[in-house]
Amino acid sequence: MDFFWGISKKEKKEGGTRELLRCIPLFEQLTDRQLAAVERILHERLYAPGEEIFREGEPGVAVYFIQSGSVLIKMGRDKKVLAELHEGEFFGELALLDDSPRSASAIAGSESKIFAFSQPDLFAMIERNPRLGIQIVLSLARIIGDRLKRINEQLLELTKERA
User: Fold this and answer.
1) CATH 2.60.120.10 holds for 2-118+132-162
2) Which of 7, 86, 107, 111 is the most exposed place for a label (fewest CB within 10 A)?
């Protein structure tokens, strides 16, 4: 299942927050000035190992970017691990579009430094700088489309295996 989650990852470069953002496909088309605008509205948080970032069923409010550490994506009553994400990866991006319930939980797998980019911040950005906001939304649509294509491919393979 990591194949599905891992499509968001690009090779991480060493450095600060702006370098992290450059590695995130959501922001890869942005200029330095645009990245600076995004960087100013990120919310930084440190998580201890085992600390919950969000819980399955809660309304989504933000997308999260891993600066350091790891995050486990878990689902269901038995908290089955669907993926382990690391530095330079992101998760929870559907929350930028709506506040529907989270489909899985996210738990810090190790001490982690994580940045959040919230839906209200995105909407405020769209009002202040429509061109930048639309670029981000279009990148988000592309990423979600890519994930949907990959999950469809996985479903097709599973169907073939069972036939």
Assistant:
1) yes
2) 111
Rounded-to-integer distance, Cα 1 and Cα 152, Å: 13
Q: Identify the three-state secondary structure at position 129.
A: coil
For residues 84 and 121, give the distance between their C-alpha atoms in angstroms, rounded to a whole number: 27
pLDDT of residue 15: 62
Tell me what pLDDT residue 61 has: 93
Two structure tokens written together for 17: 């927050």
The residue ranges of every structural domain in the chain are 2-118+132-162
Q: Count CB neighbours of 72 within 10 A.
A: 19
Q: How confident is the chain (163 residues) per 10-residue block, as mean pLDDT?
A: 42 69 92 94 97 96 96 93 94 91 96 96 95 94 91 88 82
What's the token pair of residue 56? 């399955």
